[in-house]
Write a structure and sequence with these properties.
The protein is α+β, with helices and mostly antiparallel strands. It has two helices and seven strands, in the order E-E-E-E-H-E-E-E-H.
Length: 107
């Protein structure tokens, strides 16, 4: 969803304990590190993500098609459709999809 890519000299292969990705323009990087801990409670990391193109709902549909599961619908939490949708990736890691900047500017 983020559009991030592998770092050229650091391919992320199955079995690697660390996975570093970055913006395609070489900007910000995100490092994921596998831990031996079992998930017993909420995630220790939770992303609230805003689509860079299109709408929140189109992005939610795309992510569900890719294997995410919708856990909660909070689109109307404020009564005006400006809320969010909670999804989980195939491993159960939860994240939220917010409205895009374009949607926010419209109202």
């Amino acid at each position: 969803m983020l559009g991030y890519v592998d770092i050229e000299d650091d391919p992320n292969e199955p079995g690697h304990e660390e996975c570093m990705i970055q913006r395609p323009d070489g900007g910000r990087q995100i490092l994921f590190i596998e831990t031996p801990d079992e998930k017993l409670v909420k995630n220790r990391l939770h992303f609230d993500l805003r689509p860079s193109d299109g709408s929140r709902d189109a992005e939610v549909a795309r992510l569900v098609e890719l294997g995410a599961t919708q856990l909660a619908n909070h689109r109307e939490v404020r009564g005006d459709g400006t809320g969010w949708v909670v999804l989980a990736d195939p491993e159960g890691n939860e994240f939220c999809v917010l409205r895009s900047e374009g949607e926010r500017m419209v109202g």
